[in-house]
């Protein structure tokens, strides 16, 4: 119940922030006019492409799990994907807190929980590498247009540091992994809990198959392409013609602030900063704000609802197995 109220409060704050921005600009009537002209067919296409994004996400984690000799179905992993998104909303940990969903599910299936954790972080790493490629391109575009600011560089630097840490965590063992786990424990503020010694000393059975890793990296890039296309369709739904560099920059910064933000999933930060940045590319503030709100609805809030349902479904599964 506490988590549900927290989510409702976050949604409310997001809507209030959007209203305050528009009200201060005196563009309420224009925003209402844009809303009335929304073309639902483009929104539907955006929904389809965003679902493909999450299906590819599940496929990537399936292949990540196979690297640790764990074989789960894509449909099963899709539920875990939405569930991990729901968990990630409760803690600003760059998407790392969702590993608990995979660990718990592995235990209910008598699989190696630590291997499931390793597979989760491998999947997150491949996602981050794909995002990093897009982000690097976006930074180049901003630099060429003389619109690259210090906060974008700072957030990008933090993102690449997190990505580097994930590379060390996945690819190394021993001392480096122990140090990284301690940092993660501090970051998630779980020092009051006892970290099991097996977590600190684990040596994951990771199959370093370069061909498979390149395949995962390719899926990571394809995922981001699907989500970027969804954002493009959202702009079309609003009757806004945008060029590829604008959508590229907008999407990359949405994902960046989603990950590197003091608020879970970048709530408030994304809605407050990205429309302003897009305005320098010729997109009206009210159009950019509405585009971000619609995109976030299909990229975050609808999957979040699916995650809530998924976690309840998975909890029922755990109870039934315990009874057996």
Keywords, separated by commas or semicolons:
324 residues, mainly alpha, 13 helices, globular, disordered C terminus
Radius of gyration over C-alpha positions, nearest whole angstrom: 20 Å
The residue fraction in helices comes out at: over 70%
The general outline is globular
- Summed up, the helix count is 13
Return the structural class: mainly alpha
Strand content: under 5%
Question: Whole-number average pLDDT?
Answer: 76
Model regions low in confidence, pLDDT < 50 over at least 5 residues: 189-205, 316-324
**Based on DSSP secondary structure assignment, what is the total number of beta strands?**
0
In quaternary terms, these chains amount to single chain
- The succession of helices and strands, N to C, reads HHHHHHHHHHHHH
Tell me the span between the first and last alpha carbons: 28 Å
The major sheet is characterized as: none
């Amino acid at each position: 119940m506490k988590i549900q109220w927290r989510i409702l409060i976050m949604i409310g704050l997001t809507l209030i922030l959007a209203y305050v921005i528009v009200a201060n600009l005196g563009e309420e009537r224009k925003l209402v006019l844009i809303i009335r002209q929304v073309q639902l067919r483009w929104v539907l296409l955006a929904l389809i492409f965003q679902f493909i994004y999450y299906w590819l996400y599940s496929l990537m984690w399936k292949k990540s799990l196979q690297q640790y000799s764990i074989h789960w179905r894509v449909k099963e992993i899709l539920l875990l994907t939405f569930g991990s998104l729901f968990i990630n909303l409760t803690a600003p940990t760059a998407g790392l807190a969702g590993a608990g969903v995979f660990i718990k599910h592995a235990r209910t299936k008598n699989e190696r929980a630590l291997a499931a954790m390793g597979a989760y972080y491998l999947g997150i790493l491949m996602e981050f590498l794909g995002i990093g490629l897009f982000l690097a391109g976006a930074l180049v575009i901003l630099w060429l247009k003389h619109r690259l600011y210090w906060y974008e560089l700072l957030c990008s630097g933090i993102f690449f540091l997190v990505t580097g840490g994930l590379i060390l965590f996945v690819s190394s063992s021993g001392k480096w992994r122990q140090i990284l786990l301690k940092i993660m424990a501090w970051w998630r503020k779980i020092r009051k809990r006892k970290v099991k010694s097996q977590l600190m000393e684990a040596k994951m059975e990771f199959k370093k198959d370069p061909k498979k890793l390149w395949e995962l990296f390719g899926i990571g890039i394809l995922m981001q392409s699907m989500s970027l296309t969804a954002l493009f369709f959202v702009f079309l739904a609003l009757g806004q013609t945008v060029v590829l560099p604008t959508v590229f920059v907008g999407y990359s910064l949405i994902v960046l602030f989603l990950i590197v933000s003091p608020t879970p999933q970048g709530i408030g930060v994304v809605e407050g900063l990205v429309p302003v940045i897009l305005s320098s590319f010729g997109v009206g503030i009210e159009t950019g704000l509405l585009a971000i709100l619609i995109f976030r609805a299909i990229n975050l809030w609808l999957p979040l609802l699916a995650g809530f349902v998924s976690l309840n479904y998975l909890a029922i599964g755990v109870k039934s197995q315990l009874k057996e």
